[in-house]
Amino acid sequence: MKDTRVFIQTYGCRMNACDTEIICAILRNAGFSLVHDSENADVAILNCCSVREDGHIVALDKALKLKQFNRSIKTVLCGCFAKLVDSGFLRSNTNIDAVVTPESYREMPGTLSRLVAGDIGFIVSNEISDDLYQEILPIEYLNIPNRALILGKGCNQKCAYCIEPYTRGAERYVNLDTVMANLDVLFHRHEGGIVTLVGHMVDRYMCAGVNFAMLLREVAKECERHNAWVKYLSSHPMTYSDEVLSAVSDCDNVMRVVHLPVQSGSNEVLNRMRRGYTVEQYLETIGRVRAICPDMNIVTDIMVGFCGETDSDFRQSVELIEQFRPGEVNVYAFSMRSNTYAHRAYVDDVTEDIKRERMQIAFETASRIRREYMQSELGIRQKFMSGAMSETNGRDFTNIYNRTYSQRPGTRDCGENLIVEGRLGLENNLFTVDI
Ligand code: SF4
């Protein structure tokens, strides 16, 4: 397979980005060449997201363009979206030559060989596997300096609107040895930077007697030795424990940012969403966070237009973020996904016009709160981490991140991610700034 050149494009969340690392390692170990340029590829793998209803459209568009440019290129669609695909999809999307589900990445080399040999139009799906690919260490970390390690996959919460429990299965976690081996590979390539521990429910991590707080302390210790910072996502308001908060508070290099999605300020909507908490319980968690880690940047999500959401429900969401004033609010509109509880039990009865209107109101509120949060940091001396350097119109720029920097899948970089003019000597380096 030495002569087969493979291009990979990733869409969606950090989980998909981590899966791309695993696919790269499997293919390199099998002798395939990875290329960064689709024009020189024999096969293009499109690692595609299922979270939004239209998430796959951009990947299909890419497949069309690839085929227009290079008629002999073969295309593979994988990622969590692959779980939703059947043979009818392949018949109506002829620019996709094969589909590989997330549990079947070990079969990627065989799939590519079949394609190169001329076999097309098939799905590779290992239904009973819950493979975490633990022993496959990444060969290249693609997201330098923000590198991600998968702690686990799957989610048992089964929120009514969410496709992830269907596409990613039940919760399962990698062991601490695997996490430490991944860190070794990562720091062998680059010291410093930000290491993000990724899982659908990181606080529920439990493997061989090690819980998330214990793991976080071990990872922080190792990262400290390599001048790196640690963060994690996502957390759930009902499982984000005092033990984890104490670990954050004790470890100087664990970033002061937590993603605690609230989704709605209405108990009726939260109940229909099956989120597993009330507004009062959510606020109790926020109180604990602020008592133990007063400098924590709390990032939350508000979903507008969920099935049955009334004007009054929506107003309660806006009032809630006004009340607890998170550092960042990600606002998005509900879109119905098949294979979810909401699809079976509810009607998507909030019109697109109303969703747009509510999005606008929530955005404006979120932006105002965000500005106030940022202004409150003026005059404070903070540590920053330098990130990637780039050149535009002959001028050098460097990304820098502070300890409350947040980066959520599907959003633009936010938090204190600044771009400064000039080169800061080293990438992934720590320095101090007066804001
Ligand atoms: S907690 Fe809910 S929204 Fe998050 S991954 Fe699990 S089911 Fe989906």
TrEMBL record:
<keyword id="KW-0479">Metal-binding</keyword>
<keyword id="KW-0004">4Fe-4S</keyword>
<dbReference type="Pfam" id="PF04055">
    <property type="entry name" value="Radical_SAM"/>
</dbReference>
<dbReference type="Pfam" id="PF00919">
    <property type="entry name" value="UPF0004"/>
</dbReference>
<keyword id="KW-0963">Cytoplasm</keyword>
<dbReference type="InterPro" id="IPR013848">
    <property type="entry name" value="Methylthiotransferase_N"/>
</dbReference>
<dbReference type="InterPro" id="IPR005839">
    <property type="entry name" value="Methylthiotransferase"/>
</dbReference>
<dbReference type="GO" id="GO:0051539">
    <property type="term" value="F:4 iron, 4 sulfur cluster binding"/>
</dbReference>
<dbReference type="InterPro" id="IPR023404">
    <property type="entry name" value="rSAM_horseshoe"/>
</dbReference>
<dbReference type="GO" id="GO:0046872">
    <property type="term" value="F:metal ion binding"/>
</dbReference>
<keyword id="KW-0411">Iron-sulfur</keyword>
<feature type="domain" description="MTTase N-terminal">
    <location>
        <begin position="4"/>
        <end position="117"/>
    </location>
</feature>
<keyword id="KW-0408">Iron</keyword>
<dbReference type="InterPro" id="IPR006638">
    <property type="entry name" value="Elp3/MiaA/NifB-like_rSAM"/>
</dbReference>
<keyword id="KW-0949">S-adenosyl-L-methionine</keyword>
<dbReference type="GO" id="GO:0035597">
    <property type="term" value="F:tRNA-2-methylthio-N(6)-dimethylallyladenosine(37) synthase activity"/>
</dbReference>
<dbReference type="InterPro" id="IPR038135">
    <property type="entry name" value="Methylthiotransferase_N_sf"/>
</dbReference>
<dbReference type="InterPro" id="IPR007197">
    <property type="entry name" value="rSAM"/>
</dbReference>
<protein>
    <submittedName>
        <fullName>MiaB/RimO family radical SAM methylthiotransferase</fullName>
    </submittedName>
</protein>
<dbReference type="InterPro" id="IPR058240">
    <property type="entry name" value="rSAM_sf"/>
</dbReference>
<feature type="domain" description="Radical SAM core">
    <location>
        <begin position="141"/>
        <end position="372"/>
    </location>
</feature>
<dbReference type="GO" id="GO:0005829">
    <property type="term" value="C:cytosol"/>
</dbReference>
<keyword id="KW-0808">Transferase</keyword>
